[in-house]
Amino acid sequence: MSLSEELDRLGALHDRGQLSDEEFVAAKARVLRGEAPGVGPPALQAINALRRSRDDRWLGGVCGGIARVTGVQSWIWRLMFTLLAICAGTGVLVYLLMWILVPTDPPPSTPGSHPQAPSAVPSGS
To answer: 94 and 63: one domain?
Structure first.
C-alpha cells in the first residue's frame, strides 16, 4: 500500500470516529516514519540480530543463537526441536533450514588476533 493510500485510510478511520485525535496523530507519525504496521522495530532488530552461536553449540549453533536473541535458555530450544523432530520430523527440517540460512557469529576480534605480514628477515651470507 502506498503512503498516500495509508494516510487516506487513516483519515477515513478518524472521520468515522474509530480513531481518536491522539491515536490518529500517533498512527500518522508512524506511517510517515516508515514503520510497518504490526511489525515494530524491536521485532525486526531481533530477526536481523539472529546469528548461529559459536560458543553455545552442539551441532550448528542454531539453538544457542535463538537463545541469545529470545532470552530463553538454549536447552529449552534443543528440547523443543527434539520434540518437533519426534512429531512428524518438522524439527529436523526447520533446524536444517536455519543451519543453512542463518549466518554464523563473526569470530571474536581481539587486538592480537589479526594476522600480520611476516617481518623481513635479512638473509645472511
So the answer is: yes
H helix and E strand count, the chain: 6, 0
Contact by Cβ (8 Å): 104, 52: yes
Low-confidence ranges of the chain (pLDDT < 70): 1, 35-48, 109-125
Q: Which domain covers residue 51, as residue numbers? A: 44-101
**Distance from C-alpha of 56 to C-alpha of 46, rounded to nearest angstrom:** 18
pTM value?
A: 0.50
The C-alpha cell of 11 is what? 483519515
Tell me: do 50 and 65 sit in the same domain: yes
Give the pLDDT confidence of 98-115 residue by residue, as tens digits: 878 777 877 776 655 555
